[in-house]
Amino acid sequence: MSKSEGSVSYKKADASYFDKRGLRKYAGIWSLWALGVGAVISGHFSGWNFGFSTGGWGGMLVAAAIIAVMYLGLTFSIAEMSPALPHTGAAYSFARTAMGPWGGFVTGLCENVEYVITPAVVVTFITAYVNSILGLDPVWSPLIWIVFYAIFLALNIFGLELSFKVTLVVTVISLAVLVFFWVSALPAMDFNRWALNIGVGPDGAAIELPEGGGDFFPFGISGVLATLPFAVWLFLAIEQLPLAAEESVDPKRDMPKGILLGMVTLIVSAFMIVLLNPSVPGVGSFHLASSLEPLLDGFRAVYGDGGVVLLGIVALTGLVASFHTILFAQGRQIYSLSRAGYFPTALSVTHPTYRTPHVAMLAGAAVGLAVMLAIWFALGAEQGGATIGSVLLNMAVFGAMFSYILQAISFILLRLRQPHIERPYRSPLGIPGAVLTIVIALVTLFYQVQDPNFTKGVLWVAVWFAVAIVYFGLVGRHKLILSPEEEFAIEHAEGRTPHHVIAK
């Protein structure tokens, strides 16, 4: 049976279609909390610190506070939408109900860029730590990427229970490592001498102040705003939590609690790491502004180089936690778009034994690795290694910012147009919180454009979008499936009370 809605056509899949695409329920509140926090926690180990070069310490702190407000507006909105629309599609599902098939597809594409590229960014940081620990030549980096992808794809594929248990364990260990660092750094910290050791040279670039005592905002308000894209790394990917909706035991109760507990955890951790990591004697904001391993640098400053291998392994845990959890999100995001027919439906077939979207995870990993290897071999080992992290990070943040804007718009439209949808949780920030998210995301994008690496990233994303939109326009829109997200959206658009639809 088929039906049409506007410019798209649907077909009703039989039971066997969903039998091959079934997911298993397992996650409770703490599994969801671990999934959200684990996805982000690598941003407290590496990446955020580059913002010292554009804003100094004060600029980084205020930028982090502004971005935290953006994420609070976003997460409160998601906490309302996810139990109201408890489908694996998450951002695509919200936008599909609010803005129709094309709006849902474009939002899904933005999120797809984020979740395919972010693991690639994280694995470059992992490789930097491994090279430093083992003293390896960077020429071996592609092999390390492949090994880590293989290990954590296997953990994600061979059982939902295993995946969530690994997520919980590595997330708790990662937070324990951070707390251990905070406790170690507090007695030694010298904030004025080291955190404030950045000044501004004649050319406007950051310079080191040997005695510290620099300005709180060495680059002024413009420096604070220029630091916003780097502060995003402290919270990026917390929004992936709703992708586990169909694997949650009770999404209407647990999803809002998991999201908001995760956000509180990350705000505390972000403040502590921004305060303490640059304040350790011998480290400082100026050095961290170009460091690929800031937490390891902090441990070295406190404990010396004697235990560098052990300290390096300890510092790796946060990166591993994020890599593992974002691979989880990548698989569910591709799976949901494929199950509904936006992507080729073969991508949504789940493992017959473990009921995990193994095809989607393998496909997403293959694309991420292919992009990394293309840059590596096109530019050579030395230049390629330096370029991959910056270009891919900008691609990931670009996709994320547009995804946030579209999710906030979806929230506003759902509030205004579909107030009858059952909402087990309501955002205390309401529409103003969503508007604030949109404004901060737009400002962040504006300042991201100032980064020359941004242009390279945007060109790659534009190609990605062009290919996907052409496919959807010519093929995908004529082959949509009445998946749970689609039936929910259609029936609410038609003003009917939807029947409960579950993919077996």
Automatic annotation (TrEMBL):
Entry membrane topology: Multi-pass membrane protein
GO CC aspect terms: plasma membrane
InterPro entries in UniProt: AA/rel_permease1, APC_superfamily
Keyword flag Membrane: yes
Gene3D superfamilies per record: Amino acid/polyamine transporter I (1.20.1740.10)
GO molecular function, one term: transmembrane transporter activity
Subcellular location: Cell membrane
Pfam families in alphabetical order: AA_permease_2
Source organism superkingdom: Bacteria
Membrane-spanning intervals of the chain: 26-45, 57-79, 140-159, 166-185, 216-238, 259-276, 308-329, 359-379, 391-416, 428-447, 459-476
Keywords, sorted A to Z: Cell membrane, Membrane, Transmembrane, Transmembrane helix
Protein name: Putative amino acid permease YhdG
The species this protein was found in: Methylobrevis pamukkalensis
Gene transcribed to yield this protein: yhdG
